[in-house]
Amino acid sequence: QEPESAEASQFRLAAARTPEVPFGVSSSPAVLSHYGVSANTITLFRRVDNDRRDLDMNNEDVDTEKMIRFVRINELRLVTEYDPVTSIGVMQSSLRFNLLLITDKMSPKHPERMRRFRAAAELFKGKILFILLDSNLKSNEQVVSYFQLKKSQLPALAIFHTPDDEHDVMTVDEISTERVQDFCNRFMQ
């Protein structure tokens, strides 16, 4: 309600420190009503799964760091990189299918793999959550072992249906949009 409040100032600082995420401020009663937002609420709209997350700033002592953490935990991108922070948002996603690209981010082939993986993610927006899992991170070793993969079998695609833990794995030398699309369609059927 107050664009010059301390909370609004903290919000603008969080926005400046997170330039890759679009931020906006509104004190319009019509806008707040349209989205069902009460005053002093941060609402994060996720385009990947058409979901939203709200942070009520009236109940907590919210500062810039807490706002940034809220965004980092809850934002889901076309391809979300899995790490200890984003894992919470991934687990809370309304999408029941997750596709992981388990790969070495340091590989010279990584940029091209990601370009093709993102192209496939566009085709399944709102249906499958696309996740990048860097096989070099120690914190990701448990996920790699869950799919019973060894480093020598990477890169690999692993698709997972969250309600019943059903999953499938495909090792791949080259990622192609068509190959990813076929793998996803087969599993979803």
From TrEMBL:
A GO cellular-component term linked to this record: endoplasmic reticulum
InterPro entries: Thioredoxin-like_sf
Single Gene Ontology BP annotation: protein folding
UniProt record similarity statement: Belongs to the protein disulfide isomerase family.
Record protein name field: ERP27 protein
Organism: Sclerurus mexicanus
Gene: Erp27
